[in-house]
Structure formats: structure tokens, C-alpha cells
Amino acid sequence: MNPAAREELRAYWRDYDRKRGSRSDYWREHYHKNASYLYASRYVRPKYKATHRRSKERRRLYIERANILRDNNLVQADIEAVYSQARAVTAETGVAHSVDHIVPLRGEMVCGLHVPWNMQILTARDNSIKGNRWDD
User: Fold this and answer.
1) H helices then E strands: how many in the chain?
2) Using CA atoms, how far apart are residues 107 and 126, in angstroms rounded to an integer?
3) Which residue has better confidence, 122 or 35?
4) pTM for this predicted structure
């Protein structure tokens, strides 16, 4: 871009900012005003609600199929204890923690089980980084 065109473009944006206010101020205000709408964890666009519902149902079925000991009440109590421990750690530290399956329920090479000895508590960030992999 030649210097004359660059200067013309800068003049245009200076004029724009003078008339309408700073663009960064506008977007900052916009995000603060709409933060609950834009960043709500439970917000799903109406167009994707059916897909979201199907994916949640699919996840529930994977866990149900992987839970071979679902009739054993002691194992179910241990599973719930792992989840409640993750919630307690989250409340205690203020950092989001989640339950991770060490061997993924739907891995590429191997599929794990939904049992207490296949679960670990990780930070939500570490769990999302790990993804659907089996890390020894």
C-alpha cells in the first residue's frame, strides 16, 4: 500500500472514530452489556437445540453402554463419590474440575468403561486438552 493510500485510510478511520466514538469502546460496551447472553454456558442457539439434545442423548447412551456394573449399587455409589469429589475440589479451589475417563469411552483404538477405577479428576482445561486420547 502506498503512503498516500495509507494516510487516506488512517484519515477515514480517525473521522469514523470522531463521529461515532471509538470502535474498541463500542465493542467493549457491547460485550459487557451482552455477556450473559454471549457467554452463558447453557445457551444454545435455537437453530442448534435439536442437535444439542441429540448429542447429549448420545453421550448418555455411551455412558450407559460402558457401565457394565450398573446393577452393582456399591460401584454406582463409588462413581457418584468421584463426581461429588470433583464438585468439592471445584468449590474449594475455585478452578473448574471435571471427571475424566482415563481410557476414553469412545477411543479410536480402545473403548473404556464407566467404572470408578477408569476415572480421574482433572482441571476442566487439562481434560479438554487431553480430549479423546488415552495417555498412559
Assistant:
1) 6, 2
2) 17
3) 122
4) 0.53
